[in-house]
Amino acid sequence: MVPFDEQLRRLVTEACGHKPGSPQRQKLLTQIIRLTASRLWRETTPYYQDALQQTWLYFCRNVCEGLTGQIYDPNYGSVITWLNAYLRRRLQDFYLNQNREQATTVPQRIRQSTSGGISEAIDPIDNLPASPQAPPILEDLEMWAQTDSNGELRSIYIKGRPDVNCQVLILKRLPPEVSWRELSEEFGLSIPTLSSFYQRQCLPRLRKFAELEGLL
Known about the structure:
This protein is mainly alpha-helical. Helix content is about 55%, strand content about 10%.
């Protein structure tokens, strides 16, 4: 019986032997993702699914060509090790951003009114259902955001800043993502303000599109 890591290496080699975007490569990448999904690092944080999505995007772009990062090199470890390293870095980013956000933007969190007053804050991201683990394809997400056929992404922006809208932020945060620090400097807005807006307004729209298209 072929060891699991060796099986993955063979599938990667076969997938990379086909042209980028070809049905043959997409089918093999999907197979690899389904085989590895249950073996990746897991935790119950509310931003886990978003970090996982970024990991799959990174995988699709870098396993063969290294388009947005370091190309996968089997000499340095298994596919699982490579993906887990990236996933945990993304989780750390989300964790740090959430801590900054909670420290400075708690009043912006949605509060639910009741007859007796105001109940505890509710974060809408926390209430979103977890997405099935299937392969997102970065090209489709980029095309959707760039086209913005109904203008919705451009129309959703930070108050008083139409230049900082969901279209701009989604494109900048797709791999290779621009860091929140760089975006803060570029737009002259705080990291918590940008991160909070992105997680509440932009990510749900990106996720909805990916789910409708069967990418997620």
